[in-house]
Amino acid sequence: MPAPRELDPHASLASYFGAEIRRLRERLGWTQERLAEELGWSLSTVASVETARRSPPAGFPEKADLVYGLPEVLAHLAELVRSQPRWFERYLDLERQARRINMWSMHLVPGLFQIEEYARAILKAGRPMDPPEVIEERLAERMKRQQILERAEPPQLSVILHEAAVKQPVKSVDVTRAQLQRLRDLGRRPNIRIQVLPFAAGEHAGIDGAFTIFEFSDEPPVGYALCRDSGRLIDQADEFEWATLNYDQLKAEALSPEASIGMITGAMSHIWIDRNP
After folding, report:
1. With contact defined as beta carbons under 8 Å apart, do 191 and 154 qualify?
2. Of 45, 98, 106, 264, which cross-links 214 as Cys (Cβ 3.0–4.6 Å)?
3. CA 122 to CA 124: how far, in whole Å?
4. What is the DSSP letter of 193?
5. Angle subtended by helix axes 13-27 and 32-39, to nearest 10
6. What distance in Å separates the CA atoms of residue 192 and residue 238, rounded to the nearest whole number?
7. How far is CA 141 from CA 75, 134, 145, 226, 270, in A?
8. Within a 10 A sphere around the Cβ of 7, how many other Cβ atoms?
9. Alpha carbons 97 and 70: distance in angstroms, whole number
């Protein structure tokens, strides 16, 4: 089993909180099991907090302050963590740490696969009132996420796109074609599997919206349901089971990777955009 990836404490406030819990534990020479015993929480809770895969539950920071002999330092930090609009920070933490990512996207090419001009157009369309500097800041963050694709040991990705995402023109013919070319090139990498769910599939298991399933080397998998400006962690057993079943159903109904690459290639020659009113 590969070693767990190190958490970047600068990635988010949640990551910093988790890194502090771990740093203080290791300074005492304690294992996670020992800390869990001292805190009165489960081992899985301690591990998930340390890796920022969940927020510290109520009472956890205060008890940790007592155990570590700190004057409400962790409790104050936890308040900052909870006050942040951090749903996407949590998503990014999961994305960075996952060894496998299963993703369903209905309308657009996922951010991990977007080229710069495509992403910029999407960001502008979704937030037309945002000033250019805000758009560019968000664009830079999106492009930075793609660094995980170029790691020495990149995650395994299984991505299912609806045909609507493949055939949705964005910005211009040239930009759309370049985006499809990028998608096709990524689909040929050994660690990336891309499938397209055709219109002919009709109603389907992903019709409620996009979601992602993250698998890890040392922790149970979790899911994330995504919508426009928010997201929701899927970690309850029954709900996660449904997400997994839905993904498996989409995968079974989608075209094969080879046929999907063929559809993407064909779409590159049939892009039509009418900007006239």
Report:
1. yes
2. 98
3. 5
4. E
5. 100
6. 28
7. 29, 11, 6, 18, 31
8. 21
9. 29
Residue located via tokens 């990836």: 5
Tens-place pLDDT, residues 100-129: 999 999 999 999 999 999 999 999 998 888
CA–CA gap between residue 77 and residue 100 (Å, rounded): 30
Interhelix angle 32-39/60-68, rounded to 10 degrees, is: 110
**pLDDT category of residue 3 using cuts at 50, 70 and 90:** very low
Specify the amino acid at residue 184: R
| The amino acid at 152 | A
Tokens found for residue 91: 């998503």
What does residue 234 show for φ and ψ, rounded to 5 degrees? -110, 95
Q: Which domains does the chain have, with CATH numbers?
A: 13-83 (1.10.260.40), 87-109+150-267 (3.30.870.10)
127 vs 63, more confident: 63
The DSSP secondary structure of 207-226, one letter per residue, reads: TT--EEEEE-SSS--EEEEE
CB 210 within 8 A of CB 104: yes
Dist. CA 154–CA 112, nearest whole Å: 12
Confirm if 215 and 99 have CB atoms less than 8 A apart.
yes
Take residue 218 and report the two structure tokens written for it.
């040392």
User: Residue 142 contacts by C-beta under 8 Å, 6 or more apart in sequence?
Assistant: 111, 114, 119, 123
